[in-house]
Structures are given as structure tokens and as C-alpha cells.
Amino acid sequence: MTETGPLDLPQDRAEADGEGAAEAIKAAIRVKALELGFEAFGVADLDTPWSAGERLEEFVADGRHGTMAWMETTLERRVHPRAMWGEARSAIVLGLNYGPETDPREGQGRTDRAAISVYAQGDDYHEVIKKRLKALGRWMAEQYCCQLKVFVDTAPLMEKPLAGLAGLGWQGKHTNLVSRTFGSWLFLGAVLTTLDLPPDAPGAETCGSCRACLDACPTDAFPAPFQIDARRCISYLTIEHAGPIPVEFRAAMGNRIYGCDDCLAACPWNKFAATAREGAFHAREALKSPALEDLAALDDAAFRVLFSKSPVKRVGRDRFVRNVLYAVGNSGRPALAEVARARLDDTSPMVRGAAVWALSRLLDKAAFQAAAGARPVEEIDEDVLAEWGRS
After folding, report:
1. Alpha-carbon distance 255 to 40, whole Å?
2. Torsion of CA 152, 50, 30, 23, to 10 degrees
3. Which end of the chain, N or C, is less packed with Cβ atoms under 10 Å?
4. What is the C-alpha separation between 245 and 234, in angstroms, rounded?
5. Is 364 a known active-site residue?
6. 302 forms bridges with which residues in the sheet?
């Protein structure tokens, strides 16, 4: 979602009288947030210097954001919360646990099945959190006549460093937030407000010498601890990247067709994390380990039905089936060759190209050459023709 606000409210009535009153307001907001279902709460001092803005500028300057042009166009607003809204005096950061029932990496051994990232197996967290943030914002406005804006992920606000500043945890070597209570499984939302609230102590980084998350990455997407190159990340490649995925990363994708949990799942702090209590975040049975054969056959209408209220719907059918076909090619199961063959005449060139690659992995040389000889003579897409030629 994009940012909301400021809400249509009167100006602040008055600043709280004294430190005790401000603490009481903060405590009341925390109680209300917990009533609304949030499980982590903290307040960040926006006057505290942070290096997140400089790190983001370096990230973009090095081109590590890939094709996510919005990171570049919104860079000036992202470098600090006040760069986006100068009147903000405090940031309330909230978290919801989405811890899985089992280690998500276990599903990677079932090569005829798809591995969908834990966060995307349930309802779209953007919508779940947005409703609760708005409810909290309305309550705060009614109680304290403050101005505020609420944010969930896609707005130009860096929630992870802000969450660290608010004491919810720290950014681990995989660049995601790590919590002593919830491990690496926290959804984040934030409220910027004109209320001057007492801040919490920032979270202390306690990764130590551990590099489990770095070593777990299938594509070596971490050039150094606490740094990521999105262009090598399977989550970026399967969700943000349009067009054919670079050949060098396809085999490493395995059966991961939407996102990748490997670095998160490897974090030792997960041993303290509980399974998500929130029903909306529990995995749907249909998305826990769906068959690649069924997913590859989805047309646009069936895709929309299957992924209704799911974040997966954001990538669209063509990009999704592209990912499925790469997984088909990685399955090591020749019986799935017919699944790929059925997509050779798909309306999407991106899907056709992925089908060619999958066939090249599943058929022997003679069978693939026969398939190449029978390919549609009207094929004119350069990427698809390049797949045939390369394979």
C-alpha cells in the first residue's frame, strides 16, 4: 500500500505536560495496539542519527536495486522519515509474527512441488496490517488530536532500520529484522505522528560471528555481512524481475517459485519464535506445497482465483508461470516434460521461453532436438528464439 494521511484531523490540542504524561500516552497506545492484534511495539526517536540513509544511497549507487526504479525515484524521501514528513516527531513501529509451523526449507526436497515463501502462503499482510494501523490511527487521533501517517512496506519508509531504532530487534547480516522473541519472522508497520513520545532503547545487534544466513543463500546474494545485492536474490528475481530470469540463477532457484526463505529460516534466533497465532497468516492448504503440474496449467482467471487475497497475485499470471516452469526444469523429473511442452505455444513469450529452458533440462539431446524441429515457425520473439538457440 501507499502511505495514508495525514488524517483529516484538527491540529494537536497541546503537547503533553511533562514526561509522566508522555509515558502515559505511550502506554495507552501500546495497550490499544496489542488489543488490535499487534505483537511487537516500540517508539523510535527521530532525532537519533542513523546511517540507514547513507547505506541506501550506496545501495542504489551501486545498482544493487536492479530494476526496482522506485527505489531510485523515491530515494530522497527514503533516506530519513523526516525527509518524507517534516512534522513527524515520533515513529511508532509495530510487528506481527508470521512464524511458520515447520522449517520452510523442508519443502525444497519435493521437486515435483512448489515452494512458496512463508509470508505469501496466507492472506496479503499489507491489507491485514493496513486495517489495523488505520484503526490505531483513528483511535490516536480521537484521543490526542494528533496528526499521523501510517505505512506498510511499500511506502517510502525504511521500516527495518526504524524497527531497530524502536527496539523491536536489529537488522541481521541478511539485512532483515531479527527479534529475540520472534526470530526473523516479523511483519512490520509504522505510524509517524506529531506526538512527542518517549523513545525505546534501540535494539542491540547480537549476530556475533554467526553467518548461517549468509551461507544459506543459494545465489550468494550477500556481498558482505549486512549487505545485499537484490539482483542476485531469488525473492527479487521471482517477484520484482520482469522478463527471463538470468540463466546463471535458474538452477539455484530449485523449486522456489515465489520468494525465498532460506536466509530467514537459517537464523538461530528462530528457535525462540512461536508459530503465528494470526489466522490470516496461517498457510492455506492449497499453497503449502502445490503441484508444479497444476500451477503451470493456470490461465489468468484461474490464477486470480487461486491467489485471491494473496500477495502472489501482484506478480501476475505470466511472471508466476515463468517461475513455475523454471522449477519444472529443475525437478529432475522427465515425466514433467509434457508440462513444459504444453506451454510452448503460450500467449506470453516469457512463459514460452521458460518452457523451452525446462524442456532442455528434462529431455535427452535427441528428444529436445525433435522438439526444436517442431517449434512454431511463426515464433519471432527474440528472447524465445535465444532460448532455443542456447539450449
Report:
1. 33
2. -150
3. N
4. 10
5. no
6. none
SS3 212: helix
Q: What's the rounded Cα separation, in Å, for the pair 172 and 207?
A: 7
Tell me the one-letter amino acid at 310: S
Which uninterrupted H or E stretch holds 257?
strand 256-258
**What tens-digit pLDDT sequence spans the chain (391 residues)?**
334 443 443 444 444 456 789 999 999 999 999 999 999 999 999 988 778 778 878 878 878 888 887 777 777 767 788 888 889 999 999 999 999 988 999 999 999 999 999 999 999 999 999 999 999 999 999 999 999 999 998 677 889 999 999 999 999 999 999 999 999 999 999 999 999 999 999 999 999 999 999 999 999 999 999 999 999 999 999 999 999 999 999 999 999 999 999 999 999 999 988 888 777 778 889 999 999 999 999 999 999 999 999 999 999 999 999 999 999 999 999 999 999 999 999 999 999 999 999 999 999 999 988 888 877 667 888 999 999 988 7
Q: How far apart are CA 181 and CA 277, in angstroms?
A: 14
Other CB atoms within 10 A of residue 256 CB:
27
What dihedral angle (degrees, nearest 10) is formed by the CA atoms of 13, 16, 17, 20? Answer: 160
Which residue in 12, 112, 153, 294 is the catalytic one?
153
